[in-house]
Amino acid sequence: ATEAWAAVARAAEGVELDARDRAEIADHEAMDRGPEGVALFERAAELYLEAGDPGEALAARGRAAYIRALTGEVEPALAAAGELYDRALALYAEGGTGVRQTASVLLSRARVLMRAVHGGAAVLGDAPEPERATSPDPGAAEAVVRHVREILTLVDGHTGDDVRMAARAAEAHAMLAELAELSGDLEQAVTLFRQATGAFVAAGLPWFTPEYDVRVAALAHRLGRSDETEEALRDALAHGGPYLEPVARAQLHLQLAEVTGG
């Protein structure tokens, strides 16, 4: 999708576009720019406001907050995401935006909270990496669980005809799975990761699942279930299809060979 929007941006050079089109181009370009995407998300938010879509403007700013969290700026990101959360719920209650935009803001906040669970370590850019927490932050973990359940309640009944809503629900299940794994409940983690992969596949987005299939394989291996480990690795290969990088595909085949003895 990112490549498609890049092609749209190139085709639109020199063409007069309305604010909505320019907002969507900036928004999608930001998704592929790492730390540099923050300014583009903010620009997209301004354009969404100009186009009369305040909910999508909040969603774009939520994505910017998540990028800040990935660069190690977790505290400012938490503050920004919390403010956006309050504004989005108020706007939704007033009928000023829809479920999709509201869910996007909530999901961005959940993503930021997950960075707090992991101690706020930077994973993007050149930001200095703070010391990792020796164990997950229990307060942040509880906040994520509450928040994810709120997301699932919000999108309930809206995922059948909107692939983006279905993807958000699937990611929410994956967050719960990760928290279960961190807490040591491996069985529950397997179940929830399976729910997440099933939801992505049902939404027609199988290429989102290999990461979670591999997590299932690792958990099944720790539980001593070799058949399930093999199945999950095969799922990762099948779901990733042509979208897997050659190195990732080779690694999966090597892991599968180790499991099967082939």
How does the overall form come out from the CA principal axes? globular
Low-confidence stretches: 127-134
- Following the backbone from N to C, one meets helices and strands in this order, namely HHHHHHHHHHHH
In what range is the share of β-strand residues? under 5%
Mean pLDDT rating: 88
Count of helical regions? 12
Structural class by SSE content? mainly alpha
End-to-end Cα distance: 36 Å
Count of individual beta strands: 0
Question: How would a textbook summarize the main sheet?
Answer: none
Tell me the radius of gyration.
19 Å
Q: Helical amount among residues, as a percent range?
A: over 70%
List the helices and strands and how they pair.
Elements: H1 2-11, H2 19-30, H3 37-50, H4 54-70, H5 74-93, H6 99-117, H7 138-155, H8 163-183, H9 186-202, H10 210-222, H11 226-240, H12 246-260
3D structure, described in words:
By secondary structure, the chain is mainly α. The chain has a domain at 2-156. The protein is 73% helix and 0% strand. The chain is built from twelve helices and no strands. The protein has helices at 2-11, 19-30, 37-50, 54-70, 74-93, 99-117, 138-155, 163-183, 186-202, 210-222, 226-240, 246-260. Helix 3 packs antiparallel against helix 4 and helix 9 packs antiparallel against helix 10 (210-222). The protein is globular, with a radius of gyration of 19 Å.
